[in-house]
């Protein structure tokens, strides 16, 4: 799941460090795909660091349930098939595209149906002290946190997740993600055709997209 879908499960938690933790695995991956941390079983003397770890573990649990669900298997496959004609000649792997496109559509639906407020998400992150984030990273084994902290400051400053509420921007967000792996993933023609597919699939998912959140919530309660 993407940032805002992870936030949905803990949107009522009043602890900025926990909120940071639930999106931190993806933030680190976006900052530098070579950063690999495993703080899952660590315990710190600072409660804020432990809150980040708790959020991190919640992220892993949600992703595990999401990626093993019938919802994910069905819709990522259908999106892959529908996007294939739209990206003819592109180097992007179809499975990757279907996977990420589904996650972006779900984030869009959460925003456009009012299930979450992106301002609340960013307000939480802004409350976290940089020193605590730095301590978590060092404690987890990251020798140099400067690359991530610069990325994180830019992420908070740009607040680009607001654009996820604009359905026509989903293809652009998809391109940005693909550009981390492929230099020129899509032509303008690709993007235009992708927008049509993604908009139609977004409307198709609208009536029943909350079923996956209900399913995962029930599994989390049962832990």
Structural summary, described in words:
It comes from Mucilaginibacter lappiensis. This is Acyl carrier protein phosphodiesterase. This protein has one domain. It has 223 residues and is mostly helical. α2 (16-31) packs across α3, α3 (47-67) packs across α7 and α3 (47-67) packs across α11 (210-222). It starts with a helix and ends with a helix. Helix content is 67%, strand content 0%. It is globular.
> Over the alpha carbons, how many angstroms does the gyration radius reach?
18 Å
Unreliably modeled segments: none
The computed structural class is mainly alpha
Shape: globular
- DSSP, total strands: 0
Protein name: Acyl carrier protein phosphodiesterase
Organism: Mucilaginibacter lappiensis
Keywords summarizing the entry:
223 residues, mainly alpha
Brief summary:
The chain is an all-alpha fold and 223 residues long. The protein is built from 11 helices and no strands. It has one domain.
């Amino acid at each position: 799941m993407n940032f805002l879908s992870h936030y949905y499960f803990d949107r009522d938690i009043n602890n900025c460090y926990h909120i940071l933790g639930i999106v931190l695995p993806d933030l680190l991956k976006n900052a530098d795909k070579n950063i690999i941390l495993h703080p899952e079983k660590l315990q710190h003397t600072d409660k804020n660091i432990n809150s980040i770890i708790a959020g991190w573990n919640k992220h892993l649990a949600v992703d595990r349930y999401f990626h093993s669900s019938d919802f994910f298997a069905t819709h990522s496959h259908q999106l892959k098939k529908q996007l294939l004609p739209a990206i003819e000649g592109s180097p992007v792997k179809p499975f990757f595209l279907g996977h990420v496109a589904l996650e972006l559509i779900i984030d869009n639906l959460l925003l456009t149906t009012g299930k979450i407020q992106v301002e609340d998400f960013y307000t939480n992150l802004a409350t976290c002290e940089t020193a605590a984030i730095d301590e978590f990273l060092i404690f987890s084994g990251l020798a140099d946190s400067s690359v991530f902290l610069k990325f994180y400051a830019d992420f908070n400053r740009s607040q680009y997740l607001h654009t996820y509420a604009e359905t026509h921007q989903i293809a652009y967000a998809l391109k940005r993600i693909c550009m981390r792996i492929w230099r020129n993933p899509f032509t303008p023609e690709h993007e235009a055709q992708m927008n049509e597919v993604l908009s139609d699939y977004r409307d198709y998912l609208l009536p029943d997209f909350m079923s996956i959140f209900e399913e995962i919530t029930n599994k989390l309660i049962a832990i």
